[in-house]
Design brief:
With about 160 residues, the chain is mainly alpha-helical. The chain is about 60% helix and about 5% strand.
Length: about 160
């Protein structure tokens, strides 16, 4: 395998905005959990089935799992995003197309980071709402929304990356 070019990418305004939205969302999830924790009952929903209904319950400490996982995923993907030359691409990377391909791939990863945090935030909010019986489960729309928010941009990225 040929050595791929290593390029320092400049972030566009959109890239900076996605990063800011992601970090703000991480902070919001933590604030929500910390401010709600004391008032949570001892037993809360900790798992939902594909229909969005709670199907497993555990101690209220489990609510901390959501922001912890979201934070680790966000930070891990942020670190990975600094090395676009190691990503898998649907096309061969050359000196001529590296900047364009790296830019598209890093933007996709920024978008996906934000979506992951958004999904974990929604699960956190719905779990807390379920505890107070303001809602029942995640909702039947949740799984379809989650799949759409991930698959549509991935498909768009692959199509754009294969086009010259």
């Amino acid at each position: 395998m040929n050595e791929r070019p290593k390029i320092k990418l400049e972030q566009s305004t959109l890239d900076k905005m996605l990063e800011m939205l992601g970090w703000t969302s991480i902070l919001a999830i933590w604030v929500l959990v910390i401010t709600s924790y004391q008032n949570l009952p001892d037993i809360i929903p900790i798992h939902y089935n594909s229909a969005g209904q709670a199907n497993d319950f555990g101690g209220k400490g489990h609510i901390l799992t959501l922001p912890i996982v979201a934070t680790f995923l966000f930070i891990g993907l942020s670190i990975l995003n600094k090395f676009p030359h190691v990503f898998n691409y649907p096309t061969n990377i050359t000196e001529d197309n590296a900047l364009k391909q790296y830019t598209k791939a890093t933007r996709l990863l920024r978008y996906l980071k934000f979506i992951i945090v958004l999904i974990f935030g929604l699960i956190t909010m719905k779990t807390i709402s379920n505890v107070y019986e303001q809602t029942n489960g995640l909702g039947t729309w949740f799984l379809a929304l989650t799949i759409g928010l991930v698959i549509i941009p991935l498909t768009y990225y692959v199509i754009k990356s294969l086009s010259r």
